[in-house]
Design brief:
This protein is of the alpha/beta class and 408 residues long. It folds into 2 domains: 3-232, no CATH class; 238-407, no CATH class. The chain contains 7 helices and 24 strands. It has helices at residues 15-27, 243-263, 265-277, 279-307, 316-351, 358-373, 379-407, and strands at residues 3-5, 34-36, 48-49, 53-56, 59-68, 72-86, 90-103, 107-111, 113-116, 119-120, 124-128, 140-143, 148-149, 153-156, 159-162, 165-166, 170-179, 182-183, 187-197, 202-203, 207-211, 216-217, 222-223, 227-232. The chain has an 8-stranded parallel barrel with strand order 7-8-11-14-17-15-12-9. The protein is flat and about 80 Å long. It starts with a strand and ends with a helix.
């Protein structure tokens, strides 16, 4: 008898972290590795390779490798590789990926559309990035029926279909999840749209999932433990952050704000005056700043991916990363500035005292704004609006400071 209970399951995956780990492993290939500069160069390699093998090309399609003693690292737009045996790990980065064969250690894959029939002795980690092309295609992962993973599987994608056998635990974060294979451990699923268990599905451990609706369990599907924990997903507001974490972030903003008020009291008061007198100009500049931030983020990601194929470009990544962090810090401080402005505005209206403490204004502003940011569907827009207003005021203040320094 299958029992459906409610549990406080709030597991979330971080695809960026998964992808970054894969990319770091890829970029850190050892100097003794045997490198094939192109897919065509693979034909000239011996049947048995004792070291690591790195394949970098635009396409690596139809490659059949015999035996590799170390790791196999592949970077190409299209990857279709079958290998009799990899003694170490497999790391693949591309767009459309298919991997078959025998992997004695773990496999890690990053791409748009990923399929595998591989027999993997240890763990399988997959991060599939949404493809934003003219067709609006999402990311897709298929673990084929012939695939066997000895230990755990972690997948982050839009659509995930697991037909193979997982010897350990299965963890998935996706929009749609379909399970039609054998899971010998526990299954932990975040399905933002739908979870379906096919008749061939057999989960020997506990099934824990978060979804807007109950899982579609087809006749013949088995959860041998008899335990299914379900938490219904509801839109909570900004970044889907629970109330407890919003409170924590609110206190963090208070701490950061107090530090900046103590260190830059005069500058903070000047920025608040700018918001009060030039709110329209601040919003316009903030809007341009938000657009520039989106463009810069795209440039940063493109440069990072491009650096995988042309190592000289990789020297730009640290500089771009530092500038990206500065951008993000400015947007964070922008919201703190708006909280001070709002709190000060209310206190002046209530008390008539224009010499309000910026610290008290900050506390009052955060008390008002933190719950507002959590309003479903509206909170995210309020947060972005606040960030743009504050960012615009920051830019005006920086411009004035630079101009006065130049004239001095």
């Amino acid at each position: 008898m299958i029992k459906i209970d409610s549990s406080a399951f709030s597991s979330r995956f971080l695809p960026l972290i998964i992808g970054t780990i894969i990319l770091i492993i890829f970029c850190a290939s050892p100097s003794y590795a045997l490198i094939a500069t192109s897919a065509q160069g693979v034909d000239t390699l011996p049947d048995k390779i004792f070291d690591d093998l790195v394949i970098r090309d635009k396409n690596a399609v139809g490659l059949k490798l015999n035996e590799i003693g170390g790791d196999l690292i592949i970077s190409a737009e299209n990857i279709n590789v079958t290998v009799n045996q990899v003694g170490g790990n497999l790391n693949a980065v591309g767009a459309d990926i298919f991997i078959g064969g025998r992997i004695r250690e773990s496999a890690r894959m990053l791409g748009y559309s990923i399929k595998t029939t591989a027999n993997i002795s240890r763990n399988l980690t997959i991060a599939a990035i949404p493809r934003r092309d003219v067709f609006g295609l999402g990311s897709n992962v298929v673990v084929q029926r012939d695939c066997r993973v000895g230990k755990d599987v972690d997948i982050d994608a839009a659509v995930v279909h697991v037909r193979g056998t997982v010897g350990g635990d299965l963890r998935i974060n996706a929009e749609t999840v379909i399970i039609g294979g054998v899971i010998e451990g526990d299954a932990t699923i975040v399905a933002n749209s739908q979870l379906r268990l096919e008749p061939s599905c057999r989960i020997e451990g506990i099934l824990t999932y978060s979804s807007p609706k109950e899982a579609e369990i087809e006749e013949g599907a088995q959860v041998l433990s008899g335990i299914i924990d379900h938490e219904k997903i509801s839109y909570r507001g900004l970044f889907d952050i629970p109330l407890s974490w919003r409170i924590v972030f609110g206190f963090a903003a208070l701490l950061v704000g107090v530090v900046f008020v103590l260190m830059f009291r005069r500058q903070i008061l000047n920025l608040v005056e700018i918001l009060g007198s030039r709110i329209g100009q601040s919003f316009g500049i903030g809007l341009l700043g938000a657009a520039a931030m989106l463009v810069y983020t795209a440039i940063f990601l493109i440069t990072f991916m491009f650096a995988l194929f042309y190592k000289p470009v990789f020297a730009l990544v640290p500089l771009l990363a530092v500038m990206f962090i500065i951008f993000m810090l400015m947007f964070y401080l922008a919201n703190i500035l708006v909280a001070i402005f709002l709190g000060r505005l209310i206190m002046v209206r209530l008390t008539g005292n224009k010499e309000c403490s910026p610290g008290r204004s900050l506390i009052l502003g955060l008390i008002i704004l933190t719950p507002l940011y959590g309003i479903p569907k509206i909170g995210i827009y309020l947060y972005v609006l606040s960030a743009m207003l504050g960012f615009g005021a920051l830019m005006i203040g920086i411009y004035r400071q630079l101009r006065s320094s130049a004239l001095a």
